[in-house]
What we know:
It is a single chain. By secondary structure, the protein is mostly helical. It contains 2 helices and no strands. It has a domain at 40-101. Helix 1 packs antiparallel against helix 2 (55-99). The longest helix has 45 residues, at 55-99. The radius of gyration is 22 Å and the shape is rod-shaped. The two termini are 23 Å apart.
Amino acid sequence: MADDGKRVAFDRDQYKKVQKLVTDVETSSADALYGTDGYGIDSDLRAQPTEARWEVAVKVGNDVAALAGQVRTFTDTFTDKTLPDFNDQMETAEKLFDETDDLSKADAQGTGKP
């Protein structure tokens, strides 16, 4: 984009840094679900053995398993759907930045999005 002093110029290098950050967050979030010791964060994670009989221990075990399941569901959605969709939108925006010199006059035609 031309910079005539009235508009902000598109900086591809800075934009690529943002795209890399999104990809790094996606990768590190997915990696965080699995420990190097073989444990993973999902509904099988327990704070107490499943055979626990003491009511408090059973409750803690069930609550931790429920929380871990929610973390897993959220993180899977975040890394499998939300971030990839966001990255796709960033690529679409990058194409638009390349194709136009004045975003105020641009429209959604040709971007593949309604």
